[in-house]
């Protein structure tokens, strides 16, 4: 794309001046909708606990490659008009047209386009990118743009409050209007006098913590009555405020109250009837720390708390003691988080206008008080080429279109208050970001916590922000720089040089990130050149938001900067069914790393059964890191998250919405280290969450869960009264084999080692004994095998189920291992692994083997041909499944019960990896609990009742798209 301008022209009114656009994604002469196969679907959403239907709209229209989950979330969240009325939107086309055409008109009205033809190209390119799920605007755009409602496009707001009652009451009112519109807000309370200072009347001030109560109650009320989402808010207090210790302890003390009330019999679960009696639960709290304080912590010196009126020190505290109190409170209840004031303001493009004092609720947007930011996020996996390299050039083209659209939206946007509207129009803050980073890195064979993974993420982020500011300078050459640019020009250009210098320090690890880095370097050079000539249209350009609901709209596996949540996923099917599937990026990653088809199949089967890659057959241990996830047996270490954030932070205008998850066993010292290293590594903000630190979280009832136990409860608590009951002893009975029984002998080779297995069965066909022949008669190995055979045989006869032996001995890894001569078991990790897979195939029914991911060669071939592993029988000349499928789908629907078909960007179908019944789970979080036997500490969705999963600094429901407050 190019730009038409001349000389110092910066006005929008000059005839013939504007941006010109070249087609990159759409096709000339063909509307983007005409390149897509569309289909009709029924969207029905129920609360799985109550069985009640919470939403129903039939015959909605979506592209055939959109998942059921994506179409459901868009229909329920973003279609406008009363359900059942003629005005209700029925198609994705209507939704996209409503938004894109409004953006085109805004561009035409404000002189952005050189000609009507350029406006049409802009419209088509934007439409193509949206319907093909390459990016999405934030939720308020889909809620409001093109409707009779106010055209609010921003999801992130920062307010301000001064030390006066008028200002405090105005804070309550402004927050309420923002919550009503479905957005969140944050502010810094540090201007309010502390409870240790006097009023002009001679009395003592109430302090900011007391005023937090009223705001919290207001947020809780609007949350329960809001039509779009729960209220979300951030409260920040400077570390030198005299009430800082009271602020730090606020939510931790409320957590103590929750425990006491729970133990007294009150319903204190999240969403429970009595939880509303607890205060401060509707806000995220953060402490704003300075470099001065952090150095005092580092050196073990005192630190002064200062009067709000004249800045004098009114109290001195031990910095390390205060630091420990902050970390202890975060250990107890996950609050407060940390914001690093000097780092934030060192990257501030508008310091002449004012300091950055606060953030939005999720901590990614940091800018001037009384301002807002509209967001958009790209789906990174869409830019992965067939050779498994990232298409940086195509990515940059998409960024140019999206930044242009985001800036246009400020021209027609409405704002909840005049002061916010004025600041936003004067500084035009944007927040472009991305999702699916975790899935992209895995598909490329890069570990999330590796030098290669961090280099790839850093170069992509640098290219995104560099391209955004380059485009911002080009737009400034046509319609002028932002109003506040002139007084902040030197500071803005200084920050651009800081970004460029950070880009120069990146050291590419592979050819893939080296190619992207070259593009980023060129983009930053153009930023300096064009910025010096035209200035910039936008004070800020990029953030990394949680991408909760819009991530599902784009069918992303991972949100924001997050790693993959789990390797096994929950997938909805048309007709109400659901399946468990292995993450589709795993086979691609394995092929990228050189594994053969047989090896890929064996590894995927292992993951389907176990939920992790530990001891997967044939997988080299140096490749384990590629498949590390946020949860599970190979969960990333906390500092792995911090290091990834640090790699990307220098290339963002704002910050990163992300919570560093720690295990329940984590110590206060570990939280101190996460917060301290975050400061050292140059992050702008950090939040932590220790599993099960909150009482008001529902626990799983699955195996291995925490059934209401309290990790913070004293070990010497009073014992519970118990009843004395009579002890009954049950003794097993041995079922001996008949004198004459049916047996089979199997010869086998595993990794070049030969052996024989003889198995005998009862009259009903149930396995009762095995004999193994390995090594020479009289050798140690032969003796061990005889003893093992006797032990297993006796166990079988005493009632130990064969499936128990199969689950324990399959995937056992030792030499000899490798290829076998058995077509049903192509590869084996050990002789034991082979023997019990063979026994499962010989003696277990299909349903039990399917649950363990063990299939015969015929069944795998049947899956490739029909999409189902299940055997068929002939009835009346027609082939039917022996077992009824979980859910049936229309012929035109590309998803089936035992295998799920997906589509690439050209529409060609590709077969996914094996799918299995979803084990009574309703989301991927619940599925992980079923597989691993451990509880995931997340709240339940208020809409559909399923367990949510972490997304940035909040939670998102993958069942219905609801969030705990993020866009």
What's this entry about, in short?
The protein has 967 residues and is an alpha+beta fold. Strand 24 and strand 25 (878-881) form a beta hairpin.
Q: Which range best describes the helical content: under 10%, 10-25%, 25-40%, 40-55%, 55-70% or over 70%?
A: 25-40%
Using only C-alpha atoms, the radius of gyration works out to 30 Å
Low-confidence stretches: 1-16, 224-229, 697-729, 873-915
Distance between the termini: 30 Å
Function: Catalyzes the reduction of ribonucleotides to deoxyribonucleotides. May function to provide a pool of deoxyribonucleotide precursors for DNA repair during oxygen limitation and/or for immediate growth after restoration of oxygen.
Catalytic activity: a 2'-deoxyribonucleoside 5'-diphosphate + [thioredoxin]-disulfide + H2O = a ribonucleoside 5'-diphosphate + [thioredoxin]-dithiol
Organism: Nocardioides kribbensis
Keywords: Cobalamin, Cobalt, Disulfide bond, DNA synthesis, Nucleotide-binding, Oxidoreductase
